[in-house]
Fold Transcriptional regulatory protein.
Amino acid sequence: MGMQDKPRPAATPEQALAAMDHLIATHLVGQHEIAQQVGLSVTDLTCFAYVIEAGENLPTAGDLAARVHVTTGAVTGILNRLERAGYITRRPDPADRRRVRVAAQPDAVARVREVYEPYYARLTELFADYSPAEIAVLTDWFTRASTLAANYLEEHCGTG
């Protein structure tokens, strides 16, 4: 019996939702604790995570506002705090001098990665327990659920 046929306990959509809620709740608490460890608020840490995720393609303040679901005014405050704490630098956009792009400070990236990497290593190990077909389903579900969540937030808590 290969990895492909690993038996999974039967589950209803209700049980799947409950499991998702449990993961999200644990994550929210964890984000709070990690943010405290690195001396940031959860929103500031989330914003910084998006800056890291963007990599070479430096995001604008507007990009970050859209991703974190806050107003551009709120992002200005977040970026001021992150800059003061040495997490980011602002750079003028070469294509449009009025626009500012946000770059992560390498040592700050290293500090945050140090906290997250062991956790992500364990999650990666957990994925090894699943077949490629199952991982495809998980990825599809996470991707579609993220879009659904973003759209719902937009409709019901409209920002911007």
About this structure: The beta strands are 88-92, 100-104. The longest helix spans residues 13-37. The CA atoms of residues 14 and 29 lie 23 Å apart. The helical segments are 13-37, 42-54, 61-68, 72-84, 106-127, 132-156.
